[in-house]
């Protein structure tokens, strides 16, 4: 079936500002793939290219076999789901209505089917009891779970998670990691995760691509443990070792 995402010699950035040069990697189906690096390294920029918010400056980027082009945009948008860092739920809608929204816009399901599908998705993220609550009535971690449920509504090929652990206490962050692993295991889902939280990287990441701001390049690709223990690049080893090795 081939990789779900493929980047070939991509220059990432914005018109007049190249942030990363010559980025090449694939994301396999069913893996949790991490985009990693320090602040300003370009990991969020790469994700914006991958979800179609900004076109790549050069090179080729494909999702599920389709290259990101203006012609393919509508089809590709239905192949991905995105959870933004804050959750980005609509405050005037209940949790159930937030999850139903993509189904109302892009599916042919009847209202009853949409509600049933949305409730099932909330159950998948262990929040069925929060269906009728407003986003302001639930915690930050719960809002992120609702956002993941919404991202899965159209059964996408891949779900992108932008800093899922940001702003969460360690226990809530760990439970969110457990949810990601369970969804990957139970449903065979593919996740691309932007993060700099090393405990999460080692717990959930099958592979990671690491970027370096000073070199404007991808400097590492592989499993987090391999990169920490075997990388020939001192910068990479130092970055991965800063979290220590206890229990990792």
What features would you describe in this structure?
The chain is α/β, with parallel strands linked by helices and 248 residues long. It has 2 domains: 1-79 and 157-248, 3-Layer(aba) Sandwich (Rossmann fold), CATH 3.40.50.300; 88-155, no CATH class. 37% of the residues lie in helices and 24% in strands. The chain contains 9 helices and 10 strands. It has helices at residues 43-50, 73-77, 95-106, 111-124, 140-151, 170-187, 198-204, 224-230, 234-241, and strands at 5-14, 17-27, 32-37, 58-63, 66-67, 80-83, 158-162, 191-194, 207-212, 217-222. The strands form 2 sheets. Strands 6-7-8-3-9-10 form a 6-stranded mixed β-sheet, sandwiched between helices. Strands 2-1-4-5 form a 4-stranded antiparallel β-sheet, covered by helices on one side. A hairpin with a 4-residue loop joins strand 9 and strand 10 (217-222). Helix 8 (224-230) crosses helix 9 (234-241). The two termini are 32 Å apart. Mean pLDDT is 90; it is low at 243-248.
């Amino acid at each position: 079936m081939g990789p779900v995402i493929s980047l070939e010699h991509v220059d990432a950035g914005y018109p007049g500002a190249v942030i990363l040069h010559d980025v090449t990697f694939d994301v396999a189906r069913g893996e949790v793939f991490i985009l990693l690096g320090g602040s300003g390294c370009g990991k969020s920029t790469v994700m914006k290219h991958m979800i179609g918010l900004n076109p790549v400056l050069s090179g080729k980027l494909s999702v599920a076999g389709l290259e990101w082009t203006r012609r393919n945009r509508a089809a590709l948008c239905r192949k991905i789901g995105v959870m933004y860092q804050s959750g980005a739920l609509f405050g005037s809608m209940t949790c159930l209505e937030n999850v139903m929204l993509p189904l109302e816009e892009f599916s042919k399901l009847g209202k009853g089917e949409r509600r049933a599908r949305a409730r099932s998705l909330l159950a998948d993220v262990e929040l069925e009891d929060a269906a009728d609550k407003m986003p302001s009535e639930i915690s930050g971690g719960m809002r992120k779970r609702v956002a993941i449920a919404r991202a899965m509504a159209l059964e996408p090929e891949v779900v992108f998670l932008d800093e899922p652990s940001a702003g969460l206490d360690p226990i809530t962050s760990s439970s969110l990691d457990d949810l990601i692993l369970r969804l990957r295991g139970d449903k065979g889902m593919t996740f691309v995760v932007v993060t700099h939280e090393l405990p999460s990287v080692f717990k959930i990441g099958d592979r990671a691509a690491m970027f370096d701001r000073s070199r404007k390049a991808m400097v590492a690709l592989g499993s987090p443990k391999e990169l920490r223990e075997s990388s020939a690049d001192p910068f990479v080893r130092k970055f991965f070792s800063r979290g220590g090795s206890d229990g990792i």
